[in-house]
């Protein structure tokens, strides 16, 4: 069985990381990230061509952009949920294009004597 280089393993994990980012599988993403960190440490002690380093940088940048987009989406969803909890209206459109707004009722604590 052929021993795979650290660079080849890193490429494989970058592709796997991309799949998990696109599918939203955060648990597997966490596991792959840990493996990648260990391989990056090992990469320093292995001879790697400039082309391989460039390809690894491209894959890492691609995944960084996906991760940033996912983080922004999560932040946006958190803001939207907070707005809904405060009773801010939501605008929707019917099948025929008619605009409609509705707001969730704001929940308050009622004290009873």
Structural account:
- The chain has one domain (6-87).
- Helices cover 64% and strands 7% of the residues.
- The protein has helices at 6-23, 26-43, 50-85; strands at 90-93, 99-102.
- A two-stranded antiparallel ribbon has the order 1-2.
- A hairpin with a 5-residue loop joins strand 1 (90-93) and strand 2 (99-102).
- Helix 1 packs antiparallel against helix 2 and helix 1 packs parallel to helix 3.
- The termini are far apart.
- The mean pLDDT is 88.
Features:
single chain; 113 residues; mainly alpha; two-stranded antiparallel sheet; 3 helices; 7% strand
Q: pLDDT under 50 segments (min length 5)?
A: none
Helix percent reads 55-70%
In order across it, which strands form the biggest sheet?
1-2
State the order of secondary-structure elements, H for helix, E for strand.
HHHEE
What is the residue-averaged pLDDT? Answer: 88
- Coarse shape: elongated
Q: Rg from C-alpha positions? A: 23 Å
Largest sheet: number of strands, sense, barrel closure: 2 strands, antiparallel
Number of domains: 1
In what range is the share of β-strand residues? Answer: 5-15%
Annotation field: number of helices: 3
Determine the N-to-C terminus distance.
78 Å
Q: What is the count of β-strands?
A: 2
Q: Which structural class should the secondary elements be placed in?
A: mainly alpha
């Amino acid at each position: 069985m052929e021993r795979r280089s650290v660079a080849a393993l890193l490429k494989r994990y970058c592709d796997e990381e991309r799949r998990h980012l696109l599918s939203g599988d955060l648990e597997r993403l966490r596991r792959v990230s840990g493996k990648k960190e260990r391989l990056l440490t090992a990469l320093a002690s292995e001879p790697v061509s400039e082309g391989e380093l460039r390809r690894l940088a491209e894959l890492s940048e691609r995944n960084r952009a996906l991760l940033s987009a996912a983080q922004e989406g999560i932040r946006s969803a958190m803001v939207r949920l907070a707005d809904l909890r405060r009773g801010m209206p939501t605008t929707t459109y019917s099948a025929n294009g008619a605009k409609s707004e509705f707001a969730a009722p704001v929940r308050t604590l009622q004290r009873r004597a």
